[in-house]
Write a structure and sequence with these properties.
The chain is α/β, with parallel strands linked by helices. The protein has a single domain, classed as P-loop containing nucleotide triphosphate hydrolases (Rossmann fold), CATH 3.40.50.300. The protein is built from nine helices and six strands, in the order E-H-E-H-E-H-E-H-E-H-H-E-H-H-H. Helix 1 crosses helix 9 and helix 3 runs parallel beside helix 4. The chain is globular. The mean pLDDT is about 90. The structure holds adenosine-5'-triphosphate and magnesium ion (MG). The site of magnesium ion has 4 residues, from helix 1.
């Protein structure tokens, strides 16, 4: 089985890495065997899955020990169609280096403000560095916490245009369903009508990723 390996990373904290990883993992899991690797020593993805208990809708979540990221991704790729990796909010550790050297695609969640985007500039440098050893690595930013009522500001469009890393056409809106899913320990797919719009956001990102 050839796995599609996707890391969700941003050295800036709180941009939605874990939220995006968990919900993408649930969506990919509906399409084929999926493993979610938690490379963040905070263990957020693991905690999230534990809250939901045995009957949550998430794929198996495995923690990655420091220094073991490459081996962990390789192992997961042998038994899965999709491998999702939630990354820690810093660039210093060897973990992120190993992860970016071992995946096909890096998704970088950013909030739709120029300040947040500029705070992620180090990620674009990390992507360039990773391409030395992993030349086929693709990288895209994913806008998170979009406010449906406002189009992107002109300054945001300008800032995006100056970045080396392109942005996906689809992103996640700011929705209570994403917070509820975290509190309940599952993904937005499990929320029924309450999660319908959030599921549409996640599905649009997945379909776009599958066509890259
Ligand atoms: N699209 C969204 N709509 C509503 N709330 C969101 C959305 N995305 C993220 N959040 C909320 O924002 C907070 C930060 O999200 P999350 O924990 O996913 O970020 P993170 O990048 O993984 O953080 P860290 O850097 O600490 O690992 C959480 O409370 C989460 O519920
Ligand atoms: Mg996180």
């Amino acid at each position: 089985m050839t796995a599609l390996r996707i890391a969700v990373a941003n050295q800036k904290g709180g941009t939605g890495k874990t939220t995006l990883t968990i919900n993408l993992a649930a969506g990919f899991h509906r399409r084929g065997p999926t493993v979610l690797l938690d490379a963040d020593p905070q263990g957020s993805a693991g905690h999230w899955a534990q809250v939901g208990g045995a009957n949550n809708d998430l794929p198996p979540v495995q923690g990655i020990e420091a220094g073991e990221a490459r081996a962990g991704i390789l192992r997961a790729s042998r038994s899965s169609r999709y491998v999702l990796v939630d990354c820690p909010p810093h660039l210093q550790s060897d973990t992120l280096h190993q992860v970016m050297g071992s995946v096909d695609l890096v998704l970088i969640p950013v909030q739709p403000s120029p300040l947040d985007l500029w705070a992620s500039v180090d990620m674009t440098l990390a992507v360039q560095a990773a391409r030395v050893g992993n030349p086929n690595l693709r990288a895209y930013m994913v806008l998170n916490q979009l406010d449906g009522r406002n189009a992107l500001s002109r300054s945001m469009h300008q800032a995006l245009a100056e970045f080396e890393v392109p942005v996906l056409a689809n992103g996640l809106a700011r929705r209570a369903a994403f917070r509820s899913a975290a509190l309940e320990g599952g993904s937005v797919y499990r929320l029924g009508g309450r999660g319908a719009y959030a599921v549409q956001d996640v599905e649009a990102v997945i379909e776009e990723v599958l066509k890259l």
